[in-house]
Every structure is written in C-alpha cells, then in structure tokens.
Amino acid sequence: MLSRTADSLFWLSRYVERADYLARTLEAAARLSALPASYGGETNEWESAVQTAGCGSIFHERHETATADTVNRFLICAPENPCSIVKCFEIARTNARAVRTALTSEMWDAINGAWLELQSLNPAQLSANTLPKFLAFVKETSLRVDGSGHRTMLRNDAYWFSRLGIALERADNTARILDVKYHILLPENATIGGGIDYSQWAAILRAVSAQTSYHWVYRESLKPWLIADLLILNPQMPRSLAACYQSIVANLDELAGAYNSAGPAQRAARTIHRQLAATRIEQVFQHGLHEFITGFIGDNNRAGSAITAQYLV
Amino acid sequence: MGFDEMTEGGGGIRAPYERIAQWLASVPREQLQQRRLEAELFFRRGGITFAVYGDAQGEERIIPYDIVPRVLSRAEWERLAKGLEQRVKTLNLYLADVYGKQEAVKAGIVPPDLIWQNPAYRPEMAGVEVPHGVYVHIAGIDVVRVDDESFYVLEDNARTPSGVSYMLEGREISIRLLPELFGAHRVAPIENYANELLSALRSVAPRNAGADPTVALLTPGQYNSAYYEHSFLADKMGVELVEGRDLLVRDEIVYMRTTQGPKRVDVIYRRIDDEFIDPLTFNPNSALGVPGLFAAYAAGNVALANAVGTGAADDKVIYSYIPELIRFFLGEKPILKNVPTWRCREPEALRYVLDHLAELVVKETHGSGGYGMLVGPHASAAQIEDFRARLLATPEGYIAQPTLALSTCPTFVESGVAPRHVDLRPFVLTRADGVRIVPGGLTRVALRDGSLVVNSSQGGGLKDTWVIEC
C-alpha cells in the first residue's frame, strides 16, 4: 500500500484516540475541581489537565492561570491549540478523506458522521450544562470509529497500521497522565485513607477508564503502587503500557509477516515490550517512577519514529 | 418553447416517456419531495461533494439532484453512440496529426496559427510516440438536442473530463429510491464503467511493462473540486489513488512509494492538468506534479491518460473544424451536428457577431465551466457593451454561436414538475483496440426556469439518464 495511505490511517487512529483522551481528562478535572477546597489541597486540576494534554506552553502564552473556562475552551476548540478536540476531529477526517479508498464505508460513516454532528453541537458555545453531553459524544465517537474498524476492516496492512496508531497513542496518553501525576503515586506520600489522595487516585483511573477494572484485578481499596502497576505493567488492562506494547508488537509482526521483512520498528517495539514484561513494580519505584516514565515516553517516541521511517514515508 | 423530450411541446407523450408520464401523473408531490431529501442525504452522508472555486462559503457542496430520470430510447442511443465514436476517433487522429505529420494543416483544413498559437498545444509533445497511439482515453462529449431527430455537440472535453462518478452514483439513487419505476423500465446498465475504464487503461500500458501492468490514479489532492470522483474511481477500479508526492522517477521509470518500498507504475490516469504534472518540464512552481514524469513518458516507460497536450483538440475554435476533420481523416459524413460557429478571428464573422450580440452566445475560445460567456438574449445592455469591447480588443479569443433552443425534460422544482433545459455528457473510452461507451451519461439540468446554463458551478443540477428498449 502507499506509504501516504498507511500514514493517514495511522494518524487518523491516533487523533481519534487523542480526542477521546482529552475528553476523559476534562471530565476527570471537572470532577476533582468540584470537590471541597479541603480535598483539593494545593493542586490546580485545570493546570494538570493542560500539562497532561502536553500543551502547557502554548496555553500559557495566552493565559496566566488555568481555570475551568479557559482550559475547557482551550482543549476543546481554541484555534491556537493545534490538538484541541475539534482539531483532532478535523485532522482525523482530513486523513480519512485522503484515504477513503482504504476505509470501509462504516468507518467513513463513523468519522464523517461525527464530523457533521460536531458542527451541530457548536463546540465554541458549550455551557456547564451542555459540556458533559459533548464530552460523552467525543468518547462515543472513538468507540464507533474503533468498533467499526474492528468489525469491518479486512485484516491486512491497512488494519494493522490503524491499530498501531491507536496503541502508540494510548501508550503515550497513559504515560503522560502518569508523568503529570506521578508524585501522588509515590508511596512516601501515601497517607492511606485520606480523602484527598483517594480522589486523586480515582481521577487517574477514571481518566483511563480503569476504575472498575482496578477493583476486578486487585480486589483491594485504592493503593497508589497498585494503580501504577495496573497502568504500567498489567497486560490485562487495555491502556497499560504493557498491553499497548503487546498490541504494537503483534501488529508490527503481522506487517513483517505480510511483507516478508522486519526492521528497526519491530526491534524497537520488541525491546520495549520485553523490558516491560520483565519489570516488577517494586523495581519501578526503586529506580524512580518519574525517571521510568520519562524514559518510556522517549522510547515510545523513538518507536513511533522507527515506524514512520520504515513504512510511512 | 422548444422541444420537450416528454411531451414534444404538444399534448402527446413520446414513446420513451410513457411510463414516466404515468408515474408523474400519479405520484404525490410529498413523495417526490421525500425522495429528493433522501437523495440529498445519500450524497451528504457519502461525502459526495464538490468544491466551487472562488466560493469562500461552501467549501464542500452537494450538487442538486433531480430524481426524475431523463430517458433515451435504445435507437436514439445507438445513433448517438455511433456519432460519438466517430467524433472521438477523429479527435485522436487529429492529435496524432498535430504532434506528427501535420497533414491537416498541409491540406489547408486547419490554419497553422490555430495550432501554434493555441496555449494548450505542447511543443514538447511533437514527435513523442504515445503508447498505442491513443491520446484521448477518456472523453466527455457534451451534446444537446433541439428536436426529435438531431443531436448537436456543444463541446468536446478531451483533457480531464469529470462527472462520471455522479453518473454512477445517480444510478444507485434511482435503483434505491425508485425501485418500481426503475424495475419496470429495464434500463441498460452502466455499472461496468469502472471495469471498462480499468481495462482501457491497462490496454495502453507501455510495451515494456509486465503482463500485469500497475495502474494508478493521480489526483491533485483532497482540496480539488473533483476529489470525491478521484477516490471513487480509484476505489471502483481497485487502483492506488496517488498524489504527486507519492510518485518518484528514477532512470526514467516511475515508481510509487509504498510501505514495501518503491513499486513501478505503468499507467497513470492523471486528473491533474498538463501544466502541473511535471515541474521540470512545465510549470516550475507546481507542487502537485512529479519531477521527471514527462521524461519517463517521452521515453515510453509510462502511459498517461489522457496524453499530454490533448487540449489542442478541444478548444472552441478547433471545435468548429471537427466536421471537416471527420471527413478528412475518416472519409465519413459527420453523424452528430456541430452548432454553427462564428470564429471571431475572421473579420467577416466578427462583423456579423458585433451586429447580432443580443441574439448570440459568445464564448471564450479557451474558457470552460460556463465562465466568461455572454448569453445575448439574457444579457443586460452593459454586459453586451462589455463583450463588444472585449471582442474588438482580442477577437481571436472568442467564438459566437446562435442560442440553441435546448430540449427540456420534466424536472421536480419548487413549483412542482416543470420542463427544464438539459444537456448530456456521455463518457467515451478509447482502448488500444477501439472505442467503448457505456449506455448513458451525465444529464445536467438548468434548475432555474428558462436558464440555459447547466454547469454545476453555476447552479445546475443532475439527473440519471436511462437508455431503454421501447
């Protein structure tokens, strides 16, 4: 297939996934900031939402402090933000239009339909009352796009590239939220039973839709090191770094098989996956959670670059 | 009132329209309205849109679609198809002649300056041997009717004619929204168009290509007004839809960049104008094209459809010579009529045109899309004076024709079902071994009462075209 087609499929998936993640981040921030001040401590949830989205510097070019209004607007539709939710949808649809022939009609319909609906929801004019509905729509769109792809696409390179995009973006998103929130997961800060921490931990889980999963996996009350374990190392958890890399390796293997050749992308992904599989959470904390996450974000970016160099240009 | 294809302008009903007339008499208006909305939804949801140049508002619009079909009898179609074949054969022979032996000039049929001074003439093509001698693989010939008997050619489109996706999607709408009416008519199928197109493209692969030549469709990209059509055709043919940046030329061989490395391309159905296909040979500022493509083409290592320089055969002055060229190259009597044309470059013609501006249609020789023309009977005094000045300044840039009383077809409009003017663009394919035409074409309809301008960029709509046995 054309490299450009593969590139578009890859980014189309990434942007839909990113929009979903932004919507979850905003939901989590709204929930935390609605708590009584005594639970909120020193943290500004809106500031960490902007940081988690990875666009702190552009935001602060225009805004002194992060508030519900400025952050919601910025992450949803501000024209100066190159990866607002609206922009993510726009780029996803542009990519979809560029590769219509590689999409099934169901996938096209999911993306184009969401794009048309987005116009009618008027994202620039959202109020506190209409915001939840809008964010629900964004999450639902990623389910529809993902689901229609899963149900209707041929299992060939087009499918594998789109799945790679999802997994790589997810890994990045999970790592980012850990990067911003790592301090509250450190064991020395855990005054267990305190309402502040509990809410913060729950918010992390909610942002990656893992609250129920946590309880099923650990059957325990929230413990910061278990949350870290779930999001980093547990292969059952679809957004964990380990699960994302399982998927990245599997899809790259499919490509290598179909094309009869493997390269730097396969090697890079396999190395990361092997490391994650061989690591235990105690080691992560010994080594330093922050260092571990920063290192992972770098590795993940390098794996993305290797995929681009090998297939997408 | 001119010729109406259903009623002949009188009270009777012409045979091809018998069932349509009964249906129109019995179908409730609400149902027609409902069907029209469904058709629009089909276009909108499918992203079947086009962009209008110079329109900031509607970056993507849908074309108004009229669900009342236009009908031709098999006999009418056969006659038309013969004429189309004759015409397109002549266009191909003329182009081979223009870039080859120039016998038509030597015989005094076409004045030489019309060739050399034509901006669409490509001197780079002189002496280039195009694969299998085919220049115009895909032609869109616009024809109109004025009576029961004759078809007139309005213009030949030999560059990159568009609209075939609307012909095919329109048929899908008829099948879906008018199942009973469609089923009762036994309409000749057109769905094999993409298949015919692919086999025509493969038939002109260079001789040094393998047994299974690779075809690609080259598009300017998704901001082009016809992008939907490009992706549609690539999809139906199962060929890659490439942009200039997807192609590269190495040692005069064209490759596309794929996830498995460069892959050779043998035939390119290009929907990019000559000027932009290769910045090394043509417009150096083109970001759409492929550096080195023309050299690969001239070396015979890739086929381009249509060939470079086909515009030398389809401007509005050359048009006026086509009947003579048919006689010259084929020794046959032209089957389709030409609209009488005054070439304003000829002083006598110019004088006549200036004296009769209010009755004539004046067109730019190299214009298209219904832009830059004067429709005398509908023009204001100021518009007429404006054109008079332009004609005096550059008479060679214009031709003039009488206003034809274009035929009308029943059309569903605001006021109900009413006659509206139509034209027809059949798509004519030329393969290495001959001409193929699927029975039908794109019927364009001027939705405004009395309007003769059917171009979609100017508020025209579309209809499905049925060829039936009757």
What descriptive keywords fit this protein?
heterodimer; A: 313 residues; mainly alpha; 2 domains; 16 helices; globular; B: 470 residues; alpha+beta; Dna Ligase, domain 1; five-stranded mixed sheet; 14 helices; 21 strands
Regions with little confidence, pLDDT below 50 for 5+ residues of chain B: 54-58
- Total number of β-strand segments of chain B? 21
What's the helix count of chain B? 14
- Order of helical and strand elements of chain A: HHHHHHHHHHHHHHHH
Can you list the strand order of the major beta sheet of chain B? 1-21-20-17-16
How would you sum up this structure, described in words?
The complex is a heterodimer of chains A (313) and B (470). Chain A has 313 residues and is mainly alpha-helical. Chain A folds into two domains: 11-153, no CATH class; 155-313, no CATH class. Chain A is 75% helix and 0% strand. Chain A is globular and about 60 Å long. The mean pLDDT of chain A is 90. With 470 residues, chain B is of the alpha+beta class. Chain B folds into two domains: 15-206 and 302-339 and 404-468, no CATH class; 342-402, Dna Ligase, domain 1, CATH 3.30.1490. In chain B, 31% of the residues lie in helices and 23% in strands. Chain B contains 14 helices and 21 strands. Chain B has helices spanning 18-26, 29-45, 74-98, 103-106, 112-116, 164-177, 179-185, 193-203, 227-237, 293-298, 316-319, 322-330, 347-355, 381-393, and strands at residues 65-73, 138-145, 151-157, 215-218, 240-242, 247-250, 253-258, 261-264, 267-270, 303-305, 337-338, 342-343, 360-364, 373-375, 398-402, 408-413, 416-425, 427-431, 434-437, 442-446, 460-468. In chain B, strands 1-21-20-17-16 form a five-stranded mixed sheet. Chain B has a five-stranded mixed sheet with strand order 11-3-2-18-19, with helices on both faces. In chain B, strands 5-4-9-10 form a four-stranded parallel sheet. In chain B, β2 and β3 (151-157) form a beta hairpin. Chain B starts with 17 loop residues before the first helix and ends with a strand. Residues 54-58 of chain B have low confidence and may be disordered. Chain A binds chain B through residues 1-6, 94, 97-98, 100-101, 108-109, 112-113, 116, 157, 161, 255, 259, 261, 311-313, and chain B through 44-45, 47, 221-222, 227, 231, 234-235, 240-243, 245-246, 256-260.
